[in-house]
Write a structure and sequence with these properties.
By secondary structure, the chain is an alpha+beta fold. It has seven helices and four strands.
Length: 196
């Protein structure tokens, strides 16, 4: 059990480090992880800021360009924070376990962490996630096989407090053997199955 927890923490740490490196690397590397429109907006903001730093009359333009970027980059801010319906995540029931063993079907989309630049749209990903959630109710391994890379029928144990509020609520509210519907996370849509 301690080994599983250590492995999970190591994987999360390695993923966080990889994400930070990818986001702070050269322009080419950052462009592969950012949404296509966000890259153009970031470049425009950088150009406007550079012009403002050079003493051009475009100082206000730099501020405006940065203000335009913030909403574009904030599009994913609710992933994992709200339920799929857009509602706030309720608190976990008092009887919710402190840790669970689970599997996950991952369905990525453009703009999600780790998704390739040519990933499906969010709408197409949601349609596929809903389809796979139906399959997962009777054949979780079959759904895992149809999910994206990163899907697994047994990811091991995870304690409460590690995941974002929405996937944590969905996972820790499931009975043993229960399968969730799709839930949006920063990594894409998840369909989870509680093993223990």
């Amino acid at each position: 059990m301690q080994r599983s927890t250590a492995v999970i923490y190591t994987l999360f740490f390695a993923g966080a480090v990889a994400f930070v490196i990818a986001q702070s690397g050269p322009k080419g590397r950052a462009a592969t992880t950012a949404p296509a429109d966000a890259g153009a907006a970031v470049d425009a903001a950088a150009d406007a800021t550079a012009a403002a730093d050079d003493g051009d009359a475009g100082a206000d333009a730099g501020v405006e360009a940065v203000q335009e970027v913030v909403p574009e980059l904030a599009v994913r801010s609710d992933a994992g924070v709200t339920l799929l319906s857009g509602e706030a995540v309720p608190g976990l029931p008092a009887e919710a376990p402190k840790k669970v063993r689970f599997g996950v079907v991952l369905v990525q989309y453009r703009g999600a962490q780790g998704a390739p630049p040519n990933a499906r749209s969010k709408e197409a990903a949601l349609a596929l996630a809903r389809e796979l959630a139906e399959v997962a109710k009777t054949d979780f391994k079959g759904a895992v096989g149809k999910g994206d890379k990163g899907s697994t029928d047994d990811l091991g144990y995870i304690p409460r407090g590690v995941l974002e509020p929405a996937p944590e609520y969905e996972l820790f509210s499931l009975p043993k053997g229960g399968v969730s519907g799709p839930v949006d996370t920063p990594r894409g849509f998840w369909i989870t199955r509680r093993i223990e």
